Amino acid sequence: MPKRNDIKSILIVGAGPIIIGQGCEFDYSGTQACKALREEGYKVILINSNPATIMTDPETADKVYIEPITPEIVEKIIIKERPDVLLPTMGGQTALNIAISLAKSGVLKKYNVDLIGANLKAIKKAEERESFYKAMQKIGLDVPEAQIARTFDQAQKVLKKLGLPVIIRPSFTLGGTGGGIAKTKKEFDEITKSGLHSSPISEVLIEESVAGWKEFEMEVVRDKNDNCIIICSIENIDPMGIHTGDSITVAPALTLTDKEYQAMRNASIACLREIGVETGGSNVQFAVNPKNGRLVIIEMNPRVSRSSALASKATGFPIAKIAAKLAVGYTLDELQNEITKVTPASFEPTIDYVVTKIPRFTFEKFQLTKPLLTSAMKSVGEAMAIGRSFPESLQKALRSLETGLNGLDTVKVTNEKKALTKDNILSELKKPTSDRILKIAQALRFKKSIKEIYRACKIDPWFIEQISLIVEAENNIIKKGIPKNGLEFQQIKSLGFSDRKISELTNIDIRQVTKKRTNLKVFPNFKRIDTCAAEFKSLTPYMYSTYHKYELNNNGCESKPSNKKKIVILGSGPNRIGQGIEFDYCCCHASFALKKMNYETIMINCNPETVSTDPDTSDRLYFEPLTEEDVYEIIKREKNNGQLIGVIVQFGGQTPLKLSEFLNNMNVPILGTSVDSIDLAEDRERFKKIVDELNLLQPVNGIAYSEKQAFEIINKIGFPAVIRPSYVLGGRAMEIVHKTEELKKYFKEAVVVSGDSPVLIDSYLKDSIEVDVDAISDGKDVIISGIMEHIEEAGIHSGDSTCTLPPYSLSDKIIQDIKKQTRKLAIALKVKGLLNIQFAIQNNNIFLLEVNPRSSRTVPFVAKSTGLKIVQLASKISVGKKIVNLKITQKPMTSIAIKEPVFPFKRFPNVDTILGPEMKSTGEVMSIDKDMEAAFIKCQMAASNPLPVKGNLFVSVKDSDKAKVLPIVRSFKKQGFKIFATQGTAEFLKENSIKVTFVNKVAEGSPHIVDLLDSDEISIVINTTETRKSINDSFSLRRTALNRNVPYFLTVSGARAAINSIKRLKSKEELTVHPISDYH
Fold first, then answer.
1. On the CB side of 632, how many CA atoms lie within 13 Å of its CA?
2. Which residues contact 859 (CB under 8 A, 6 or more apart)?
3. Which residues contact 555 (CB under 8 A, 6 or more apart)?
4. SS (H, E, C) 798-844
5. C-beta of residue 181 within 8 angstroms of C-beta of residue 167
6. What are the residues facing 763 on neighbouring strands?
7. Which of 404, 650, 759, 1077 registers the highest number of CB atoms within 10 A of its CB?
8. Cα four-point dihedral sign 608, 612, 618, 624
9. What is the pLDDT of residues 591-614, one digit of tens each?
10. How far apart are CA 171 and CA 153, in angstroms?
11. Distant-in-sequence, close-in-space partners of 986: CB < 8 Å, separation ≥ 6
12. How far is CA 140 from the centre of its chain?
């Protein structure tokens, strides 16, 4: 049937900030949906609070609201826009929960808004664990034995019945939040309490443990006529017990027999029909007992899921786009396959290659948490690779991770830093660690049998056999050296070996390896993703490389480079803390801008979650690792036809910058800022010289190449000091050191991170204000696109700081001086494109902290706050356009925008929430309003940290903050809050005539502050610390506040913003909502 004509406007709810368990794959899906529905002529209204994504660009929807995703705010948008329907299936768990809340409260009925894509009954049936299991049993599908508990006492009764081990799954949560596997009574009690707290309806499912079983997923699409197709089967290499988002996965499923696959396919479709998902995409998860083949259904998501993005990129079938069109009435047979352009979307995709996804972890940033994987997700991103065999796909995926791996690299130590030996390898394989795949290869090198390895790790023997092929090939390379003839070389390469890996195994320089391969004419072929295993011609240039050929030098390459003027854009690789979706945003905008200038754009990236790897973002897409060899092979192929204008490296963060010197040496033109200018800014030693020449202030500093030099510098500078290594992103290995022991311990680690590069040691600018500046330069003229003031004082990584645009407390003179210094630096560095500078203001002196001649994580925030198309302008400059000819108009801002980070601390037990120079946030929210207080209120709401208007304030601050916090506490008192404080702070407040209740520190015994937090007697916390002892003493206070969802502020400036906003809340002045375009 054709699309619905009774619908004129559609409200789409986004997923909010990037968090572990709900990453940028939902922004990809939401962006697809907006595009698809606008194509059909519908008015699309979008709400999302995430500034870093393409989804919240003003051009993505007809009306884009960057507002907190709460029922109250969404209701305000509904009142204002009066949409006909709400599509809740594109925004992860956030959107589903909002839809349920608005339906239950009667808002949807009141304003005549229907749900499309999934109705309320279907959502509840799938999401409420008890309802789901009953529904599955009704249609004859097996489920694990399980019972629901809604209280801790009920959970104890269930445990008596089921016994240990059990899996605890909270309802209506994402990424396994609050859940886990309990093997002991203590673990059961802890996880149950966490799960009940995490579930918005205080409900957990306690089920028999299926840990160690095989896990599979099916991505299914259904239309209104009950046409159902399987888009992709996905197999988890890791066994059940590890969250699917944290597991290495392959597509298609590789160890199922045809009979087993058909049974799973039928069960998936039956599940969708019973749950009542009328239209769109769903994800169904299964477990299979390897001993007897028992198939049980674990769960289904009645929405586009994390795996949908992976399945879309793996097959070329755009699930979210098709699902959005099905939601408005189309059927699959009415829609066209976008890859072949000739087949209908009702054809099930078939793939003749292997796709491997490997998660990206950042345990090194949370070192007090054991790096073990559980049913609660911990990865922050993922890399995907495509090959003609599992070994080729696996090794490509491993080197796509950018963790220093060249393949199945040797593992020499355990996670506890003990030597890994043939005696302990099997016991190590029992532990679910993120590097277990490498340890399987290590076990094979130790001559352990496939059966022994399987018993230890429960990973299917077929995968272990495949890994053994790689290990055997390694042994041959070590024994025989570089392959002597073309066929032998090609066979090695077809197992996924990179030139660098061959170099490592043979101990021969990589340049010699590449030269030998080139002389033997061993090059990759590029194949197209076609959705149909080559049954029909693919008209979409979406490609991957392979060395699998029927004969050497056969002409099976499908890349067919065009004769156009072309520009290569290097993407940012897998998401990680320090390099997130904001860099993908920049790469996409570069492609959009250059396409409009009639250049053919070629995107190279390996992240399946993002818009940059959508086949229609650029003219040509290569889904490949961002390594020297892989990128250069693509460039060589593209140079065979047409004119390669150059490569853009300044938009993808540190990933492409690391390749710039190599590409420059290979005579590949780098567009925009030169390689030398990039090095000048990144190399701390060279940078220091240019700063001195410009007479700019820097913190007192020195450069150290050894521990001895570090101590000499510290003797001059004094403690505390900041150590900054060269060429890192996200403040990796930056630290504030307060004493000699910390410096000794740290300096060894810093040298490891930086290789042979020096480290810069700066004096720590205490009580200073940090400022971020984004600018665009053409080498002659400079545009200041945004000056942001951090609410937290300097010393906290800029990515972890809450910041305002424009600045809220800086004088006009300071702002003008910052602009002058920015212009000086841009010209001196010969920047052609984007520039980010960080300053610290102390006693009206401006100190320069660092300069980045590339895109920064603040670019999307500034663009959305000001309306300035920053990346498009920078892209034009990179191909030679001049600012003077670009007719840029900048309007002064009449509103204030705030960007606030969100953190994954709840996922990492034992980790302190205190912030420092190393970045720990996974994403961010943005708010914008006419005044600072309203914007701050919205920011706290968007970050799930709403401010209280009454209750009890607990305050405990360091001595140097006592005088500063006094007026803040007085304001809280005036607003009706009761004040609680620890001894030192309480005495100071009493001396200043503030009535205060004394509370023990935890070390002083009960009743103490944590007791008060646990009994919900504290509404808000202010806590600042300085010495290592005070930080350790107050750790449990911060951790408990986090776990109890009590707002806490760890800086005086943050507390000041909080009380000012609480006053605004109590004034009863209504918060208003506006599309982002209204502020431009």
1. 18
2. 582, 585, 586, 774, 834, 836, 870, 871
3. none
4. HHHCCEEECCCCCCHHHHHHHHHHHHHHHHHCCCEEEEEEEEEEECC
5. yes
6. 721
7. 650
8. negative
9. 999 999 999 999 999 999 999 999
10. 18
11. 996, 997, 998, 999
12. 39
3-class state of residue 220 by DSSP: strand
Q: Are strands 354-360 and 803-805 parallel, antiparallel or unpaired?
A: unpaired
Alpha helices (H) along 222-378: 258-275, 306-315, 319-327
The answer to whether 540 touches 367, Cβ cutoff 8 Å, is no
Amino acid at 1057: A
Dihedral of CA 868/873/875/877: which sign? negative
φ/ψ (deg, to 5) at 707:
-65, -40
Q: Read off the tokens for 413.
A: 């130590």
Q: What is the number of residues in the chain? A: 1080
Element (H, E) at 935: helix 932-942
Tens digit of pLDDT for each residue in 834-880? Answer: 999 999 999 999 999 889 899 999 999 999 999 999 999 999 999 99
Structure-block tokens of residue 427: 């016991």
pTM to 2 decimals? 0.94
Question: What is the H or E stretch that residue 571 is in?
Answer: none
Gap between the Cα atoms of 984 and 998, Å rounded: 9
957 close to 1022: Cβ distance less than 8 angstroms: yes
- Pairing relation of β-strands 952-956 and 1020-1023? parallel
What's CA 629's distance to the chain center, in Å?
26
Which among 699, 736, 730, 733 has a CA at the least distance from the CA of 716?
Answer: 699
Average of per-residue pLDDT across 420-431: 96
Compute the Cα dihedral for 134, 136, 141, 145 and give only its sign.
negative
CA triple 444-448-449, angle to 5 deg: 100
Structure tokens at 1038: 């911060």
Give the angle subtended at the CA of 940 by the CAs of 936 and 945, to the nearest 5°.
155
Task: Report phi then psi at 572, rounded to 5.
Answer: -105, 5
Token couple for 1063: 């006053």
Which has the closest alpha carbon to 303: 338, 347, 272?
272
The terminus-to-terminus CA distance of the chain in angstroms comes to 41
| Selection from 249, 303, 275 nearest residue 141 by Cα | 275
Task: Please name which of 207, 175, 214 lies closest in space to residue 192, comparing C-alpha atoms.
Answer: 207
Element (H, E) at 59: none
Q: Per-residue DSSP letters for 689-731?
A: HHHHHTT-B--SEEEESSHHHHHHHHHHH-SSEEEEESS-STT
- Indicate the Cα dihedral angle 96, 100, 105, 108, nearest 10°: 70
Whether 1037 contacts 1021, CB under 8 Å: yes
Distances (CA, A) of 396 to 139, 217, 402: 42, 23, 11
| Segment holding 876, helix H or strand E | helix 870-878
Order of strands across the sheet that contains 166-170 = 146-149, 204-208, 166-170, 180-182
pLDDT attached to residue 534: 61
Which residues have C-beta within 8 Å of that of residue 541, sequence separation ≥ 6? 528, 559, 560, 615, 619, 620, 621
**Segment holding 683, helix H or strand E:** none
CB 93 within 8 A of CB 137: no
Phi-psi region of 324 (alpha: psi -120 to 50; beta: other; left: phi over 0): alpha
Question: Would you state the structure tokens that stand for residue 1026, as one six-digit string?
Answer: 């300085």
Q: What is the pLDDT of residues 369-407, one digit of tens each?
A: 889 998 889 999 999 999 999 999 999 999 999 999 999
CA separation for the pair 136, 140 (Å, rounded): 6
Whether the per-residue pLDDT at 757 is higher than 80: the answer is no
Given the structure tokens 């101590």, which residue do they identify? Answer: 711
Are 1053 and 794 in contact, with CB atoms under 8 Å apart?
A: no
CA separation for the pair 411, 427 (Å, rounded)? 15
pLDDT on residue 234: 96
* Packed helices 92-104 and 120-127: angle between N→C axes, nearest 10 degrees: 120
